[in-house]
Structure formats: structure tokens, C-alpha cells
Specification:
Blueprint: H1 3-16, H2 19-68, H3 74-87, H4 89-147
Length: 149
């Protein structure tokens, strides 16, 4: 193959088929997926921290209320604790924080699924282009063999 033909083939692959663009899209999607997964891990850690904070506060309140109402029945104390938990400002703030974190986590999970789909499309496109370029190379090779003296 002459240098002129090689340059034409490379230009065709790069400009018309967009081989480098597809590759760059795949790398961008992969980097976005990495960032998304890191964000999800951070949100999960934060969620666990807030859940632990809530459990610790509930245990504190339960112990305090059990001490204040030692002679109360378990059924009454259970109902009373629900009210105490609901009225506690620390638990209310923790619930709001936890709800915000869970909302962010769900949004990030949706983003992850979109990025994964973009990555699959880019990889499929790269595979398709690879097969097409192999086909073009085989056609060119067979043309050279047929025209050889």
C-alpha cells in the first residue's frame, strides 16, 4: 500500500468513521463512571454514619425514658417513645439529613445507570468500527493479491 493510500485510509478512519472520537467518548464515560461510583461510596458511608447517629440517639432517649417511667408498661412506653423520638430535634435533623443523602444516592444510582449505558454504547461502537476496519483491510489485501502479477 502506498503512503498516499495509507494516509487516505487513516484519514477516512479518523475523520469519516470517528474512531478517535468514539474512543474518547468511551474514556470519558469510564471516568464519569469512576467519579459516580466514588460519589456513591461516599454517600453510603454518610448514610451509615447518620443511621448510627440515629440509633445512638434513640438508645439514649430510650434509656432516659425508661429511667423516668420505670413503672410504666412496655406497651405504654413503646407508644411514649414514638412521641419522644418524633419530638426530639436531634433525631429530626438526622432524619432530614438521612432523607437528603438517600435522595442523592438514588439520583447518583440513576446517573450510574445512564453512564453505564453510554459506556456500553461506546464499546459496542468501537467493536463495530474494529470489525469494519478489519473488513476494509481484508478487502484491500485481497485486491492487492488479485492485482499482483
Amino acid at each position: 500500500m502506498s503512503p498516499e493510500a495509507s494516509r487516505k485510509a487513516i484519514t477516512y478512519a479518523e475523520v469519516r468513521l470517528g474512531v478517535h472520537d468514539v474512543h474518547q467518548e468511551a474514556i470519558t464515560a469510564r471516568n464519569g463512571l469512576d467519579e459516580c461510583l466514588t460519589r456513591m461510596a461516599e454517600l453510603r458511608d454518610s448514610r451509615r454514619t447518620w443511621e448510627a447517629t440515629m440509633l445512638d440517639r434513640e438508645m439514649e432517649l430510650s434509656a432516659d425514658e425508661r429511667g423516668k417511667h420505670a413503672d410504666a408498661s412496655d406497651a405504654w412506653l413503646g407508644r411514649h417513645l414514638k412521641v419522644v423520638f418524633h419530638n426530639d430535634s436531634v433525631l429530626t435533623d438526622a432524619r432530614h439529613q438521612l432523607n437528603a443523602i438517600v435522595s442523592d444516592l438514588e439520583g447518583t444510582e440513576y446517573d450510574r445507570s445512564v453512564i453505564e449505558a453510554d459506556l456500553k454504547i461506546a464499546v459496542a461502537r468501537m467493536t463495530e468500527l474494529g470489525g469494519y476496519l478489519q473488513y476494509l483491510a481484508a478487502v484491500k489485501l485481497s485486491t492487492n493479491i488479485i492485482t499482483a502479477p
